[in-house]
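Take a protein:
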Amino acid sequence: MLCISVEEFLFWKKNQLSKGGNQQSLSVLLDCIGGVSNNDQSLISINPRGKLYLKKNLEFLESLWEDHLQNACPIQYLCGITFWRDLKLKVTNKVLIPRSETELIVEIVYNIFRNKSEKLFFAELGTGSGAISIALSLAYPSSYGVATDIDQDALEIAIKNYINSSNQSNLKFYCGNWWSPLENFKGKLDFAISNPPYIPRDTYEKLPREVKNFEPKVALLGGEDGLKHIREIIKKAPCYLKERGWLILENHFDQGEEVKQLLIKNKFTSIEIMKDLSGIGRFTIGRYK
């Protein structure tokens, strides 16, 4: 551990932010690589004459910060870690960086299944880093979950995240496209969730470079209209859900009505478009029959 004065650290931090970027990204860097937690970052200014211990020197932290600013590489990939809900997750460019708005998909499940001791069986399609499934497996310890992803590299990251986040054994991972690895679970699921690729092609081409140049295309692009994968998930969902089982989807901000019609076409009921914290119809849910 390297010892520096708080005064020196605060001057360095102010200097880095003057170059660009934002406070949140710098805080992630300082927490993950520098070893200065968010809580410590909030408290140190109280005693500017105190001392601070770092895992890495300021020169090394500055080099990562400048890489982030100059090349637009997401700070989470440079650190190899992201924070999501109360989880600390490993991430690489093989998985999408889980967004804060996606946290609400877990809250939707909580609102449907209020009894946390209930024995549920759920699936997540396209798990990526494993964030959603891990959060649910921890919240519902008596339940059992399965998570799929088409990319074996992504699954290995998800498995590591599960092992690092939990000492439970109520979540399993399967490699394959959407429902295909779950043939043995037809008609058994209480609910299924997915945050699939839903960005239309013309929108994808205009994404910021920190997204388009670094995050996996396969996790973002949803075909010409963005609904390619959502159509497939909805069409096959009735084979895997129990009667009155739920399907919970995240979609693009302007796709809610189209997703609703797809659910109606496939005999779902209790359909609802749910808004995120910005008031955008980010999620569409439905119950099979």
Summary: The first helix runs from residue 6 to 18. Residues 2-71 form one domain. The mean pLDDT is 93. The longest strand covers residues 241-250.
